[in-house]
Design brief:
With about 120 residues, the protein is an all-alpha fold. The chain has one domain. Helix content is about 80%, strand content about 0%. It contains 6 helices and no strands. The longest helix is centred in the C-terminal third of the chain and has 34 residues, at about 90-120.
Length: about 120
C-alpha cells in the first residue's frame, strides 16, 4: 500500500512538472542545486563526524541521504493547509524543481557511485 501511495505522489509530480518548469527562475534552479549539495550534504557530514567513516562514505551518504518523497508530501500538505500563504507558489516550484533534479541526478549516479563505494569497501 505504501509503495502504491509513493508511486501516486510521483505521478502527481509528473503532472505538475511542466508548470513548475514554466514558473521557474534561475534563482530557483540555483537553490535546487544547492539544496541537493551543500544544504543537504553538510548537515549529514556534521552528523556523521564521530562515526569513524571515511570521507567517501560520508559523501555517499550525504548525496543519497534524505529523499524527495517526504519533501513532496510536506509541500502538498502546506498547499492544502495554507493555500493563501505568501510565497506558496515559489515554495511549491522550488520543491518540485529540487525533487525532479534529485530524481534525475541521483538516478544517473546511483549505479556508478555505488559500484565505486563497493570496490573501495572490498579493498
Amino acid at each position: 500500500m505504501g509503495e502504491l501511495l509513493s508511486l501516486l505522489v510521483f505521478f502527481a509530480l509528473g503532472l505538475v512538472a511542466l508548470d513548475a518548469f514554466e514558473l521557474a527562475t534561475w534563482e530557483m534552479v540555483v537553490f535546487a542545486i544547492l539544496a541537493l549539495t551543500v544544504i543537504r550534504m553538510l548537515p549529514v557530514a556534521l552528523a556523521l563526524l564521530g562515526a569513524g567513516l571515511d570521507r567517501g562514505t560520508v559523501a555517499y551518504v550525504g548525496w543519497f541521504g534524505p529523499r524527495g518523497l517526504a519533501s513532496l508530501l510536506l509541500v502538498l500538505m502546506l498547499v492544502i493547509e495554507e493555500p493563501d500563504l505568501p510565497g506558496i507558489g515559489t515554495i511549491f516550484v522550488v520543491v518540485v524543481l529540487t525533487v525532479l533534479l534529485s530524481v534525475f541526478l541521483h538516478g544517473a549516479t546511483a549505479a556508478p557511485l555505488t559500484d565505486r563505494l563497493a570496490r573501495r569497501s572490498t579493498l
